[in-house]
Design a protein that fits this description.
heterodimer, A: 357 residues, alpha+beta, ten-stranded antiparallel barrel, 14 helices, 10 strands, disordered N terminus, B: 335 residues, PH-domain like, 2 domains, seven-stranded antiparallel sheet, four-stranded mixed sheet, 55% helix, 16% strand, rod-shaped
Chain lengths: 357, 335
């Protein structure tokens, strides 16, 4: 009895209790990639953007290390360009149709609506297949039908319930994304309660309300007068445009706050191959602060600090993530399935949706 | 030469230390793993990105991974292979490269800024007039539904305005439709839709001091239609939106929202340019029909007065679509 316990102890000793994820990138190196990408984008009238994305993603994935090995992104610029061109041609065609005949407007939204979950599904599938760690690729197995539920029906329910069911809808979408990932032949599973999502939503709304009160206070006439800025021009600008920055700031802060909490909830309920667990302890106030200060630094430097901001936010999220392995992390086997096409992936790029977790 | 790294069996995640050697004379690669050395082919090699391990796919599908970037580059040279992408050189933080890039970027940005209106105008001139008219008709239709009511002007007044408009459009190159409507939301206003129609509100007809003053507004709107300002400002703004998207669209972020603000500013600047151009062309048209030019300035003052305080704030500054009234009156000349 005692011997057996000891031998298990020995075996355990060889495996670390937890493996932290680290980010080896820095703002200096990424500035180079970002700047060169911007330059080449302008020089090629945007065609480079497909290759730019590959280099950007490879930099962030490759410098994110777990157990001594970085991640990698296998897509090529050519693949992404092909998808981009098809998506672009499709959108231009639709908007031309609309402008020639305004009656087509109903028809185009009729086409785009069912296309939207398809686009997210293809995009998740493609990007997962292109992501690799230690020679084993990820996969994502969500189907179109499930995607319609998670990305169309649930958000609609959240909307018509006046937000009362929004946490349920968000939980459904996040869990659906997380639990459909595979690493090689091993599956991810995810669990999360409802109350934690309601709590995250409640705190985020509270924070948003506080930020609005502060923002309106700062832009109010008495405050402007007290700092001697109440001249006619400033007041005209504040009256005309003051709402926009407040909305932007509230959105950035609350989205970061909520996403930090949601990330912890999802990651902490995640399990790979029924054994390996994960832990994320992103602090929501700290992440909200990072998002807010990043926004300010980026705008004040006309975008020059964007690479620094991107690295800072990525590093914080990566370094808050640990893997709790139940055994050796080798022994995963790749599943040689075909990747989905790039068309869906690139449409979601055009429509500017961030669907990664 | 030797590059140290890790080898992965096909489709497996177990890392095994290994080394890749190249015999330069025979251009042959050898893989050394667990004390054994076997010949191998080198297939696809991933591009160099700072800090990212290189992925070397061997002929049999095994993957060799290493952080020795220079080693991999030398290995490719020794194998007589073409060197991979050189983009990473652009990305290295060397001051001289940055300076050169900044200068080039500045030149490129300046070139684009001056080329963009030319390109957009070129595309605008290729837009068929029929398509332009259908844009205009659609936009007018939308406005009519929400903000316009039938004109309450007397038959005589309506006929008088139509006559003035006919005199002007006989001189101008285009012959758009004139529509008279009552629109409390728009106040005293006239709008030219791409390719027509030209909309004049009852309120504007009422505040016009005389016929010549009314003609100045009609001539101004005719100039917008004639010089296709509507389509041109749309295409220029679209060009800016594309450009800004390419530059700061590096990742999916809220920066793009901030960028759209820049598009608005740019399109407002073009809009002010076109207002000035329309004023200048209106003067030409009025001179040709022999109208009194001083009525133009009277009309602008009357418009400013009717618009009141709402128009004074930000009049002619960088966030308005029209130049300031004083500037417009000055541009008309000494009389």
């Amino acid at each position: 009895m005692n011997d057996q316990a000891e031998s298990i102890e020995d075996e355990r000793a060889a495996i670390p209790d937890m493996l932290s994820v680290s980010f080896a990138g820095n703002a200096n190196d990424y500035f180079g990639i970002w700047f060169a990408n911007m330059f080449l984008n302008i020089a090629t009238l945007g065609i480079w953007s497909a290759w730019a994305k590959v280099r950007r993603v490879r930099y962030f994935y490759g410098n994110t290390k777990l157990d001594g090995h970085g991640f990698d992104y296998l897509a090529t610029g050519g693949m992404l360009l092909k998808g981009r061109l098809v998506a672009f041609a499709f959108l231009v065609g639709l908007s031309l149709l609309e402008s020639i005949n305004p009656a087509m407007q109903g028809l185009t939204s009729f086409i785009l609506l069912p296309l939207y979950p398809w686009v997210i599904q293809r995009s998740l599938r493609f990007n997962a297949r292109m992501t690799v760690w230690r020679n084993v690729r990820f996969a994502w197995r969500g189907t179109y039908g499930q995607s319609v539920m998670a990305f169309l029906v649930w958000p609609l329910i959240g909307f018509v319930s006046l937000g009362l069911l929004a946490p349920v809808a968000i939980r459904a979408a996040r869990l659906y994304i997380a639990e459909n990932y595979d690493f090689g032949k091993a599956n991810f599973a995810a669990v999360a309660g409802y109350s934690s999502f309601y709590w995250a939503m409640f705190l985020s709304i509270l924070l948003g309300a506080a930020v609005i009160v502060i923002g309106v206070g700062v832009l109010s006439l008495p405050f402007l007068e007290s700092i001697g800025l109440a001249d006619e021009n400033v007041v005209a600008v504040v009256a005309g445009y003051g709402g926009a920055p407040i909305v932007l700031i509230v959105f950035v802060i609350t989205a970061a706050f909520f996403n930090a909490m949601a990330r912890n909830i999802v990651v902490n309920g995640l399990m790979l191959d029924d054994r390996h667990q994960f832990h994320s302890d992103v602090s929501a106030p700290k992440f909200a602060w990072i998002a807010f200060s990043n926004l300010f630094a980026t705008i004040l430097t006309l975008g020059l600090l964007r690479p620094w901001a991107a690295c800072r936010s990525w590093r914080y999220q990566a370094e808050c993530l640990t893997v709790l392995p139940a055994g050796d992390l080798s022994g995963f086997i790749d599943d040689q399935r075909q990747a989905g096409g790039t068309i869906g992936e690139e449409y979601s790029d055009l429509a500017d949706m961030d669907v990664s977790i | 030469m030797t590059v140290k790294g890790t080898i992965f069996e096909v489709g497996r995640s177990d890392p095994v230390p290994a080394a890749l050697n190249v015999e330069e004379t025979r251009q042959q690669a050898w893989l050394e793993v667990s004390g054994e050395t076997v010949a191998c082919d080198v297939g696809e090699v991933s591009d160099r990105v700072a800090g990212v391990a290189r992925r070397v796919v061997l002929g049999d599908g095994r993957v060799f991974s290493t952080e020795d970037d220079d080693g991999v580059d030398q290995l490719l040279l020794a194998l007589g292979r073409r060197r991979g992408s050189r983009v990473h050189l652009l990305e290295q933080p060397r001051l001289r490269i940055w300076l050169a890039l900044v200068v080039l970027l500045g030149v490129a940005a300046w070139g684009l800024k001056s080329a963009l209106p030319l390109v957009a105008d070129g595309i605008a001139s290729a837009v068929p007039q029929k398509l332009e008219r259908s844009f205009g008709a659609a936009a007018f239709g939308a406005l009519e539904q929400v903000a316009l009511k039938p004109s309450t002007l007397s038959e005589d007044d309506q006929a008088r305005v139509r006559n003035l408009f006919a005199r002007l459009s006989a001189v101008s190159g285009r012959d758009p439709v004139l529509v008279l409507r009552s629109a409390s939301a728009l106040g005293a206003n006239a709008l030219a839709f791409p390719g027509g129609p030209v909309l004049v509100t009852d309120e504007l007809v009422r505040i016009a001091p005389n016929d010549d003053a009314l003609m100045s507004v009609l001539a101004h709107e005719l100039a917008h239609v004639e010089e296709r300002h509507g389509v041109r400002v749309l295409l220029r703004a679209f060009g800016w939106a594309l450009l800004i998207g390419f530059v700061i669209g590096d990742d999916n972020s809220l920066l793009e929202e901030a960028g759209s603000f820049g598009t608005v500013l740019a399109s407002n600047a073009y809009s002010r340019d076109f207002e000035r151009a329309a004023d200048a062309r209106a003067v030409e048209i009025m001179t040709q029909v022999g109208a009194d030019l001083s009525a133009f300035a009277d009309m602008l003052r009357a418009l400013q007065k009717s618009c009141g305080k709402a128009c004074e704030q930000g009049d002619g500054s960088w966030w308005s679509t029209h130049p300031g009234t004083d500037e417009r009156i000055r541009a008309l000349g000494p009389d």
